[in-house]
Amino acid sequence: MAEPIFECRSASVALAFGGQARPIVSDIGLSVHEAEFLSIVGPSGTGKTTLLRMLGGLLRPTSGEIRMRGEVLTGPPDGVVIVFQDYGNALLQWRTVAANVAFGIERHLPRKECDERVAAVLELVGLSKRASDYPWQLSGGMQQRVQIARALALRPAVLLMDEPFAALDAMTKAGLQDELLRLRDQTGTSFVFITHDIEEAVYLGDRVAVLKGSPGRIDNIVDITLPSPRDQVTTRQLPEFLAYRYDLHQAIGHG
Ligand SMILES: Nc1ncnc2c1ncn2[C@@H]1O[C@H](COP(=O)(O)OP(=O)(O)OP(=O)(O)O)[C@@H](O)[C@H]1O
Ligand SMILES: [Mg+2]
């Protein structure tokens, strides 16, 4: 297999808490490959967001290391973009949808190229017709798609997503799940996707990593060998899908 994009080697984080170092995640060994969709699940407080922030170069491991394409991470790397759960605060309310999407690229690209790229990613997320609206004129699902479009406009090699669909209704969520898989196929982007929703983790994932304990550790990494392309109705009814779902519920510990 090709060299992984990300490699965590025995990465641990301890944060200062009332004068003491409190271990948050411990001995994380994990790799992320080109065009891979890696889901991460685990109970609340096991350090999923902490792990994502480490991969995004926002937090350095206290011990161990994280490499991106072989180089030890010392800060936010080029080509890695984080999509946060809180899309409301992530968008600039006084900018139109198009101007929000252009935000990260407008200073680096000639106007025409920037406009073309914005139009292309809005098309990908199905928001071409809302380009001149303001965020507050959009539904929650649309706002989250704007945040995703803005991330894609940067042409990231890796998208790190922290429970991006947690607040969305089931239908919007299903549509966005399929958009992510389509994008992965079209662009070769790698995804690290945190979710509380085990079915979502299985539906999207090539692998599902389970984080458990305090400090959080990788308890298990499950290879998901479901047929591609995945389909919201047929994939979710496959006996293998149900078996993955069952096993992961057992692994996490809520039955
Ligand atoms: N800046 C900080 N200082 C001290 N402790 C922190 C800090 N950030 C997070 N923690 C602690 O680290 C642990 C893991 O937090 P984290 O947010 O990574 O968990 P999580 O798995 O993302 O949880 P959730 O599923 O609820 O989002 C928690 O016990 C939290 O209290
Ligand atoms: Mg979290």
Structure characterization notes:
The chain is an alpha/beta fold and 255 residues long. The protein has a domain at 90-155. It is built from 9 helices and 10 strands. The strands form 2 sheets. It has a 6-stranded mixed β-sheet, with helices on both faces. A 4-stranded antiparallel β-sheet has the order 2-1-4-5, with helices on one face. A hairpin with a 2-residue loop joins strand 4 (63-68) and strand 5 (71-72). Helix 4 (111-124) packs across helix 5 (140-153) and helix 7 crosses helix 9 (239-252). The longest helix has 18 residues, at 170-187. The model has no long low-confidence stretch (mean pLDDT 93). Magnesium ion is lined by residues 48-49, 162.
Helix content: 25-40%
Q: What is the terminal separation in angstroms?
A: 35 Å
Strand content: 25-35%
Q: Helical element count?
A: 9
Structural class: alpha/beta
- Regarding quaternary structure, what we see is single chain
Q: How many DSSP-defined strands?
A: 10
Shape: globular
The hetero compounds bound to this protein are: adenosine-5'-triphosphate, magnesium ion
Question: Residue-averaged pLDDT, rounded?
Answer: 93
Order of adjacent strands in the largest pleated sheet:
6-7-8-3-9-10
**Radius of gyration using CA atoms only:** 18 Å
Q: Which residues form runs of ≥5 with pLDDT under 50? A: none
The main β sheet shows up as:
6 strands, mixed
Order of helices and strands: EEEHEEEHHHHEHEHEEHH
Q: Any descriptors?
A:
alpha/beta, 255 residues, six-stranded mixed β-sheet, binds adenosine-5'-triphosphate
